[in-house]
Task: structure prediction
Amino acid sequence: MRVLFSAVAALVLAFHPGQATAAPFPERGVRIVVPFPAGGSNDVVARLLGSKLQELWGQPVVIDNRGGGGGNIGAESVARAAPDGYTLLLTAPGPLAVNQSLYPQLAFNPTQDFEGVALVASVQMVLAVHPGVKANTVAELIALAKAAPGKVNFGSSGYGSTNHLAGELLKTRAGIDIVHVPYRGAAPAMNDLIGGQIPMMFDNMPAIRPQVQGGTIRAIAVAGATRSPIFPEVPTMAEAGVPGFEASSWFGLVAPAKTPPEVIRTLIDAVGKVLKDPEVAKRLADVGAEPGTLSGTAFDAFLRSESAKWGEVVKTAGVKVE
Result:
């Protein structure tokens, strides 16, 4: 009987080798690359997602911060990674939707080298100033800048980041001459805003909220279409006298191009389960973020629309990185 069973098993394996050898994804640890230093909003969202995926899969999920080059260094490392789902990129708009308009040449193709998984979260941006700045409103800040052209700086997490482009958008809409100071990530920029080395910056709500509530910086406007429930007393940029101004950020998960469709489906399903977790929704809401609702081809279409939008901002502002 054992001989007969072995013969039958061998026959089955001969006709269905893939079923015998294929292991469910993931069978080992997954690495999520964040193309910015630890401590910023991108990092906060990545660690929340990573911890929940680790619980769901029972496999380690490691967050790998690879800052530099406006996010290009980390993005390139994922574009060149094996397309097996074990190396992923969780990024803000820069590397996927902005940098192809900002840089004369990239070492990767944002539209061809990645496979969209999901929009994980979106957040409002906030215009904040150091408490020592003698401006309590956007109008007063604009007046200060007009009185000292070229002498008021604004920080950002790097060239091409949404907080950089929000500052450029303010320059053109308000007709002021403020000077961009790029940092290697939002966290070091925030440290200098708190320390008074820079007087102002736009940043994402998750990173700004604790600093505003702690009194180390002051929020004077939100850059979304509506006021934020986090800071209901803070006006929108439009309400503050800069009509048509809207700038928000988002965080999306992508895999290297040619990742097997079944792995992409597994990733989409896993992220979807995480984002439906009431604890995740609450933690995102607590920091001023909203869970994403797009995945797969819908997320790919969103990326194309974002590339067009931010490309126009780059063109209008005349921003280029050599």
About this structure: The first strand starts at residue 30 and ends at 34.
